[in-house]
Amino acid sequence: MGAVALPFVRPLLVRARRTQAVPAGPPLADAATLPPHDPHRATWPGGEVTSGGVTLHVRETPGHGDTPAVYVHGLSGSATNWTDLAGLLATRAPGTAVDLPGFGLSRPLASRDYSPAGHADALLCFLAGRGRPVHLLGNSFGGAVALTVAARRPELVRTLTLVSPAMPDLRPDPRRVSDWKLLVAMLPLVGRRARSELAAMDPRTRAEQIVRLCFGDPAIAPEHRVAEAAAELAVRARLAWAHEAAERTGKAMVAGWLRGESLWSVAARVQAPTLVVWGERDRLVAPRLAARTAAALQRSRLLVLRGVGHVAQIEAPEAVARAVAGMWDAVEAGTWEEPG
């Protein structure tokens, strides 16, 4: 069985463990049941919200549905990474896109704990304070955080969507060579010089470099989204904690990998129906991990998108929305467990 095919999406079979088959593709919602995609949609309004003793800056998407959606960005990302997808899913769920502590416009926690476990603790408390289960979606580092929350507090997570989650992988990948500076900057000891050089870049240049690293086809990145990213980087450069949060979070994540801390065992404990989405051209988290990640989860389906990079929710929001909405509909109908 392979990932589902769309007109611009082809199945990609990625070898999992020898004894594991590639999980089935997800059911897809009819595109007519989703609102039209507005590529020029402005970012959703934001503000600070305190829940469960944790204060985060969030962006709220008004919508309809009994189960709200919560969106979690990746390393050095923010709530604005979900603008398009949250809009497409608003007819099924109101959305809350969070800025993790120290990222976006969220202030750091008093503990200054930027470890993956620290971020997961903060999100877990925030969700528990709201007192209702959610559809939880995470990209990259945010996917790893969401995975941990779902494993630790299953009653809080109705469904889980992981977009290129930051699963541990220390094997070299030749595709990353051209983007070595951003990658080296994440390393705990040797990345200091690369981090200094990145910090010295003007916001527009840095935004363009991030697009080149994260998009499968950087040429399709909308100009207004690049400009938004540059403006956000300029604002963050003036926040006293921004550099500390990005550096210490990246270092803590890689250090955990080096210590052998494994998300694979965490994934095995997740009970929620889970959609795994991966871009075939992901340069940050290797697509070879896609099938293994889905196979490690008990109730998962896998979607691999041709020509897409690390941020599928930005690069191919309509394809991702159809898969996510299809999962939500199938779970509601009790058909998620049926063979693909």
Automatic annotation (TrEMBL):
Residues 70-323 form the AB hydrolase-1 domain. It comes from the Bacteria. Transmembrane segments: none annotated. Gene3D superfamilies: alpha/beta hydrolase (3.40.50.1820). The keyword Hydrolase applies. GO terms for molecular function: hydrolase activity. InterPro entries: AB_hydrolase_1, AB_hydrolase_fold, AB_hydrolase_sf. It holds the Pfam family Abhydrolase_6. SUPFAM superfamilies: alpha/beta-Hydrolases. Keywords: Hydrolase. This is Alpha/beta fold hydrolase. It comes from Pseudonocardia adelaidensis.
